[in-house]
Write a structure and sequence with these properties.
mainly alpha; 4 helices; globular
Length: about 120
Amino acid sequence: MKPSNSKEIIADPSLIAFCGLFCGACPSYLKGKCPGCRENTKATWCKIRECNLENDFNSCADCKSMELMECKKFNNLISKIMAIASNSNRKACIEHIKEKGYDGFAAEMADAKRVSLKRK
């Protein structure tokens, strides 16, 4: 039985982080310790979140101005370290969002109970 403060993993596109991760399967989100990327007003340090909010994007998948690997906000040292530590592949997530759409990506990630596609 789940503790009363635990959330269920649901296929909610609003739980896709601006960088392409799926907050809906994140342990911190599920335990109620984090509101998710969109609602986390304390994440002022996140340049990706700031850029997406300024440009009214749902995620970096909506950005047409540059390739992700050239974007200094998307591809910074902190994100590289976090990707290695968590075995996540945000670039693959963004590409998958472009292919499947937000609903399809959220459904796939919720079904797999995954925050990110794995690094290869």
